[in-house]
Amino acid sequence: MSDPFIIGLTGSIGMGKSTTAAMFADLGVPIWDADAAVHRIYAPGGAAVGPVGALCPDAIVEGRVDRDQLKDWMGRDDTALKQLEKIVHPLVADDRARFLEDTDAPVVLLDMPLLFEIGAADQVDLVAVVSAPADIQRRRVLERGTMNAAQFENIVAKQVPDAHKRARADVIIPTDTLDGARAAVAEVMDHVQERLTLA
User: Fold this and answer.
1) Which residues of 138-158 are buried (b: 16+ CB within 10 A; e: fewer)?
2) Strand order in 107-111's β-sheet?
3) What distance in Å separates the CA atoms of residue 40 and residue 36, rounded to the nearest whole number?
4) For the segment 4-41, what is each residue's pLDDT rounded down to a tens digit?
5) Measured distance between the N- and C-terminal CA atoms of the chain, rounded to whole angstroms
6) Model-level pTM?
7) Rounded to an integer, what distance in angstroms lies between the CA atom of residue 176 and that of residue 133?
8) How many alpha carbons lie under 13 Å from residue 128 in its C-beta half-sphere?
9) Domain extents in the chain
10) Which of 152, 85, 92 is nearest to 123 (CA)?
11) CA angle centred on 158, ends 157 and 162, rounded to 5°
12) What is the CATH superfamily name and number for domain 1-30+107-199?
């Protein structure tokens, strides 16, 4: 079985990545979602529960990793995030590897918010970056009601800037309108099919 063509989809918070991934799924592309993988390893019996519990026992609630407790820990300990990443990143990479091994699809999509941050851009065949104007990004995130403006600014400050992501992209998918995003996704798939035909 030949390896699938791998699209790496990334973008900053509020840029429409999940909506765009769903558009690829509508075209029959299997999706691996990094956030969903984290949920799996944090769930009861998940691979992260034991190691995270050894670092921070308070973070384990009812047999699972509790994200609110993790936030509290990170607020108290400047080294917490680095310690957590040492556990989580390899486990998520294992989950991703299993997905790629188990698929027989010709094209797959990896939905990875931290594609550039963890140095995974060279592990995919095409990097697609979702992007929208900063005012739309901000409005989308604040309308969710899950964080305030200060928390949003804090997250944006820690992410690779949108301009840098766009500069490193093979393709940019504009998400300021659904129709524009859908047309760009269709274009990406036409391009991928061409490459597969020529291969």
Assistant:
1) bebbeeeeeeeeeebeeebee
2) 31-33, 107-111, 5-10, 126-131, 171-174
3) 6
4) 999 999 999 999 999 999 999 999 999 999 999 999 99
5) 15
6) 0.90
7) 7
8) 27
9) 1-30+107-199, 40-102
10) 92
11) 70
12) P-loop containing nucleotide triphosphate hydrolases (3.40.50.300)
**Average pLDDT, rounded, for the chain:** 93
**Tokens in use for 95?**
């989950």
Nearest to 189 by CA among 114, 121, 79, 105: 105
Summarised one tens digit per residue, pLDDT across range 152-168 is 888 888 888 999 999 99
Q: Are strands 60-61 and 64-65 parallel, antiparallel or unpaired?
A: antiparallel
Tokens of 68: 């609110």
Burial class from Cβ neighbours inside 10 Å (0-12, 13-18, 19+) for residue 194 reads exposed
How far is it, in rounded angstroms, from Cα 133 to Cα 147?
Answer: 19
Q: 109 with 21: CB under 8 angstroms? A: yes
Distance CA 109, CA 115 (A): 12
- 101 is written with which tokens? 């091994």
Region 60-68: mean pLDDT is: 94
Q: Which of 50, 96, 52, 51 is nearest to 74 (CA)?
A: 52
